[in-house]
């Protein structure tokens, strides 16, 4: 039999080299655990009727970076009643899960407008459930497609601005609140 010249062989490992061996691609690994979706949103109730988005952003941005949508706007949603009036409820989506814990611990039963007892709000971790319906005459919303490159750029940009809170900074924030 003739020796095959084009057969690929493993290169012998060089144990004297200072560079670590390349790790296999993360996509190929069979042991990749599915990532649990993280809940980075807080649900706020008890807001005054004249609350606006900027006021919520200003108050809640102290506890972490608020995630941005595709247009670069902070992900803050004010809920409205059927007649279009503000219901006193809102949703704020943070970039990191740790911000949710911080916001809930420090802002639950706090005043939106410091010094105004009538603006005490309830802040809790948002819970997302699927709506079950009868299916009669219901409009189905299709999920919009996401430009992955654009989303990756946006996430990278937000990661640059993620503040790292230590216990001293949290204490200072609490003292400023009171």
Q: What's the CATH class label of the domain at 41-128 and 149-177?
A: Alpha Beta
Helix percentage range: 10-25%
> Residue ranges: pLDDT <50 for 5 or more in a row?
none
| CATH T-level fold name of the domain at 41-128 and 149-177 | Alpha-Beta Plaits
| Straight-line distance between termini | 87 Å
Class by alpha and beta content:
alpha+beta
Mean pLDDT: 76
What count of helical segments does DSSP give? 4
CATH architecture of the domain at 41-128 and 149-177: 2-Layer Sandwich
Strand content of the residues, in percent? 5-15%
The total strand number stands at 5
Strand order of the largest sheet: 2-3-1-5-4
Q: How does the major sheet shape up?
A: 5 strands, antiparallel
Description:
- The chain is of the alpha+beta class.
- It has a domain at 41-128 and 149-177: Alpha-Beta Plaits.
- It is 24% helix and 15% strand.
- It has a 5-stranded antiparallel β-sheet with strand order 2-3-1-5-4.
């Amino acid at each position: 039999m003739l020796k095959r010249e084009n057969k690929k062989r493993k290169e012998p490992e060089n144990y004297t080299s200072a560079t670590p061996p390349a790790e296999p691609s993360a996509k190929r690994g069979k042991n990749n655990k599915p990532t649990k979706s993280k809940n980075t949103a807080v649900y706020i109730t008890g807001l005054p009727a004249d609350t606006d988005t900027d006021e919520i952003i200003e108050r809640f941005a102290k506890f972490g970076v608020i995630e941005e949508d595709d247009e670069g706007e902070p992900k803050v949603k004010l809920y409205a009643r059927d007649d279009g009036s503000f219901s006193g409820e809102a949703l704020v989506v943070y970039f990191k899960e740790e911000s949710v814990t911080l916001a809930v611990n420090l802002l639950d039963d706090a005043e939106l407008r410091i010094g105004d007892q009538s603006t005490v709000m309830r802040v809790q971790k948002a819970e997302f459930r699927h709506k079950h319906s009868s299916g009669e005459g219901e409009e189905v919303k299709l999920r919009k497609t996401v430009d992955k490159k654009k989303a990756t750029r946006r996430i990278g940009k937000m990661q640059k601005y993620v503040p790292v809170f230590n216990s001293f900074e949290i204490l200072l924030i609490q003292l400023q609140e009171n």
